[in-house]
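User: Some background: our group keeps a shared notebook of sequences we're curious about, and every so often someone picks one and asks for a predicted structure to add to the entry. Today it's my turn. The entry only has the sequence so far, pasted here. Could you supply the structure so I can complete it?
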Amino acid sequence: MPDRFEATLSPRWRTLLVGCALLLSAPLAFLTPHGLPGGPGRAVLVALVLVQAGAVWWMGERPGAVTAAVLLAGGGIQFLYPDVGPGIALMVVSTFAWLRPARSSLWGLAGALALAVVLPWTSGEPRYTLLWMAAALLAWSWGALGRARSARRQAEARRAVLQERARIARELHDVLAHTVSVMVVQAAAADDVFDADPDKARQALRGLEGSGRRALTELHALLRTVRSLDGEPAPGAEAAAEPQPGLADLDGLTGPLAAAGLRVTLRAEGLDDRTLPPGVELSAYRIVQESLTNTLRHARARTTEITVAATDRELTIDVRDDGAGGGRLTGPGTGQGIAGMRERASLVGGSLVAGPDPAGGFRVRARLPLEGP
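Assistant: Of course. Here's the predicted structure to add to the notebook entry:
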């Protein structure tokens, strides 16, 4: 799996690294440089410390070049002062391993190990070799481990956003497909009886208005969620969020269909005084909604029977119609609603079967466990 984690250093962290470089170098002013007289040795030390501290500030933009410069400067400091070790170079190697993937930062570890082996021997202090090698390995491993953990958290956050976007897409499909189908049928029914029965036409138009208002309410809630995912303040975000629809709202689905010419019978069994998981209720509501949408669009049905029954372990949804197919809204997209219903059922650990009923018409049957997937 490719490493797509993008790490950056904030100005505060850069300032901290520069401060550490200067702080770790301060005690060197009280030590005697190895191989150089005091005056020139101090001048070389100051130059090397300034190179390290200045280079560290650019660690976020050019980590490879900075790591190389710090290792070289650190090698010079360690040659002059064998007892102090790599110092700030280990912090830079660890930061480099956090900023870049392991395959790109391994050369920094190799450089630190080379300095840990070569410099103690050339300076006549080989007893520190194993100590500095272990310190270099630990520093690089710490940075690489931190990068792996940060990459995992970033991937989990990205996956959560994608899952939420997929959920919103399903909600938009269900809301729009059902509402538009109902509104089209209601408008057609009003047109059919506009001259012959004005009262019935007005009833259909009022149902049309109610369907539109309910759809707008749900769409506004979904749009607020989309804006929150993008980090934008949504209008009215301070208000309490509208509750998701559930089984108590099924009457609102079936009512407008009477004006559209579809007689719907709704039966509920075992739902009295029961509290169902919100995810199960929402999935059940959307399955019934999509079933009615498909009935309107494709079934050319006159009656639909909906049975929602709950036991201690599962919720069962059974939707049957007497349609024969070829309704006035038949068109592209047939079958996508069934796939969406199966997906909704599987999200809560359930299953769904849809197809022609041997007794005639079409049948959708879903089983949703109440204990989750």
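Suggested note for the entry: The CA atoms of residues 102 and 355 lie 53 Å apart. DSSP finds ten helices and five strands in the chain.
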